[in-house]
């Protein structure tokens, strides 16, 4: 069965306390090549049948209506998992 992956991220203007907490630890742990972290959410939708273009469109609708809060988040990606 195919899987559709939906990634949701906080909008750039929205504070991301979890990302900031991770970001603060990067230098302490020796990861100086990274300048910032934003934490998002990943959802995996299992498809009954084939992952057609229509099913992908339905997944985008689902993401917009249920998985992302449009006032604070945006849908970064909706794709069939490889």
TrEMBL record:
GO terms for cellular component: cytoplasm. GO terms for molecular function: ATP binding; phosphoribosylformylglycinamidine synthase activity. SUPFAM superfamilies: PurS-like. It catalyses: N(2)-formyl-N(1)-(5-phospho-beta-D-ribosyl)glycinamide + L-glutamine + ATP + H2O = 2-formamido-N(1)-(5-O-phospho-beta-D-ribosyl)acetamidine + L-glutamate + ADP + phosphate + H(+). It holds the Pfam family PurS. It is an enzyme of class 6 (ligase). Part of the FGAM synthase complex composed of 1 PurL, 1 PurQ and 2 PurS subunits. NCBIfam families: phosphoribosylformylglycinamidine synthase subunit PurS. This is Phosphoribosylformylglycinamidine synthase subunit PurS. It comes from Enteractinococcus helveticum.
